[in-house]
Amino acid sequence: MFYHVKRLQYHAKPERPDPVYAKKLQEVLGGAFGEITVMMQYLFQGWNCRGPGKYRDLLLDIGTEEMGHVEMLATMIARLLEGSPVDQEAAAKSNPLVGAVLGGMSPQHAIVWGLGASPNDSQDFPWTSRYIVASGNLLADFRANLAAESQGRLQVARLYEMTTDAGVRDMLAFLLARDTYHQHQWAAAIEELEAEGWDATPVPIAFPKQLERVENNHQFWNFSSGDESAEGRWMKIKVDGKPIEYVQDPVPMGDEPELGVGHPKLYNTVRERAMVGAPNGR
Question: Most buried of the four, 17, 38, 212, 218, by CB within 10 Å?
Fold first, then answer.
């Protein structure tokens, strides 16, 4: 069961309208790493969770919090769209809204969403469920969550530097703080999952080792010019007790692919279709 409290989790009041910045802010609402994505990702991971109750509760707690973040951003965008800036084109003097669009405002904000937020990114590309990860493997999912919070916080930090509006910056500072904790939280949850033996590197640890080509699982293949990649810590680890082998000049292990002509009936059908409408029947 969900219920809605009419007050926002945190303030979402800009100092002044800014339709152009509202378009930019759409990225952290409806973009690939925006608040809609993490909201849906955590909720579906939680609803599908078959692990210990504490992990399910963690996912649903954070997913529900992200609903509040979506509402804050939608409210901020709507308030940024109220009113319009000084006309930027002579042709727009009689219509401030036209002037705002010509100045870089999203036309969809004006035409489709009636000066409101939308479930789209900053280029008006619609949010899609293909952005989310909910595999059922908690370790794999929590790693995706840590990556999502890292990318999301990065984008919020960049947006913070793109405005001087104190009200907008105040809300973004709050979101940055929550993203800070969420990154640490997912890192701690990953450690706890591994410590409790639910899974380990490589995910999934339960896949039968005898079905893996273990002769290739400890090699670094140098596929680009230069060998600086040999200097990293990844060369100092062990996989299944074996030191990493740096393969300076990898060579192909498979044969050159050769495809047959296919079934004669299929070939003739394709050829006949290709000839339809050809000049002189050719």
Answer: 38
